[in-house]
Amino acid sequence: MSTRPRRLQRRLMGVLALFTLAVAGLFGLYAMAFMYATEDAFFSAMLQQEAAAQYAARERSGRWSTPAQGFMHVYENTGELPDGLDQLLAAEPQRHELPGRDGRHYHLLALHARDGARAWLAAEVSSQLVVRPRRQQVLGILAWSALGLIVLALLLGYLLARRTTAPLARLVGRVDGISAQHWPQDLAQGFRDDEVGALARALQALLRRLHAFVEREREFTRDASHELRTPLSVIRTAAESLQNEALSAVGRQQLQHLHQSALQLQQTVTTLLTLAREEETSAATAAPAPLLPLLERVIVEQAPLLDGKPVEVHLDIAPALASTVPASVLHILLSNLIGNAFAHAEDGAVEIGSSDGRLHIANRAAVLDSAAAQRLVDEPYARREGSAGFGLGLVIVRRLGERFGLDLRISLDEGAARASFRLTPGTGGTGAPPPAAE
């Protein structure tokens, strides 16, 4: 439930740690550069001080004197420079800090006397170096300091991220708890007047509008369905009563069409009423119910669709076979699928059987291309040519199959329409292109 806020916390901590590492690395680089620059400035100052003494001695005696520091020497020409410094100086005449042999290190300063004499003041400073011998130690101190700063940054980042994302995590928890049965009325309660609070209030307003919209739709569908059931029952009863009257052949045919249309419309209204119920039908708590009696009832209800057709119904279901699909849902599925099979069967037989925990319904139907078949199952009110239905049956079947994880499969192969679904609800359903629609 709080996975995303925790990811946000880790990102904040990671960004702060990377920033701290970058600052520590930059600080360490500056520190090392400062130490080297300070050391070089110290040697340069010593050379400048000795150079002043050499110029004074040259003025007094006309020659260069011996430097006061034992690590300094005066060389009147470059060929006298030790450790091959003359070659390095010839290659880089502007360079005044040169490496020698065996770890020796030199600083050079050119001397130009007033009488035109020239010389080189060389200081071998390997024994005077401070930074280089302690470089590993300094780097270790800087590394441990950087590690300590990173740990501190992670701790502070964790506290800051936790404090910052706590309201967001609380909001995510409340949003995760939203369902068709639970619409929170206090989603924005307890949040400060900040960005998260503004988001919570916006979500609260949106949820209220959505809830009001869903309630209006449910009430309309429920009320409309209830209002339609009574006149439909009257129409169906009147049609059944008129069947016993002396009517012409045309009148009986029209009366039969009226009775079938009333039956189909009554079934559609019942389906819409079931789908519009406020409470969700639970498949997990449904007790296994015998399948054969329900199938026989649905076949009898849909039998008028076979009147005048050379079609037989083959029912091969074991009496002990049961299904854990809710009875109301199973009745809707069977009524639509068997009704489609009866309505669009041309000849031969409609076969209803079971195998591998699935119920199978097959019939002979007019060939339908796959694109048109997919449109019938996906688009509401889509009907095949000549259909007397409303184009809702297979769409409702698909929705119920997805909701209860029935793995609904509908296919068309060489003119044979086949439909099957699981008798035990699972985690999800699939639909294939249907052979026909109501």
From TrEMBL:
CDD domains: HisKA (cd00082)
Gene3D superfamilies: 1.10.287.130, 6.10.340.10, Histidine kinase-like ATPase, C-terminal domain
UniProt-recorded Gene Ontology molecular function terms: kinase activity
Domain HAMP stretches: 162-215
Keywords for this protein: Kinase, Membrane, Phosphoprotein, Transferase, Transmembrane, Transmembrane helix, Two-component regulatory system
Subcellular location: Membrane
Domain of life: Bacteria
Enzyme class, spelled out: transferase
Family annotation (Pfam families): HAMP, HATPase_c, HisKA
Ranges that cross the membrane: 12-37, 141-161
EC number(s) reported in the record: 2.7.13.3
Catalysis: reaction(s): ATP + protein L-histidine = ADP + protein N-phospho-L-histidine
Positions of the Histidine kinase domain: 223-427
PROSITE patterns: HAMP, HIS_KIN
Cited PANTHER family: HISTIDINE KINASE, SENSOR HISTIDINE KINASE YKOH
Protein name per Swiss-Prot or TrEMBL: histidine kinase
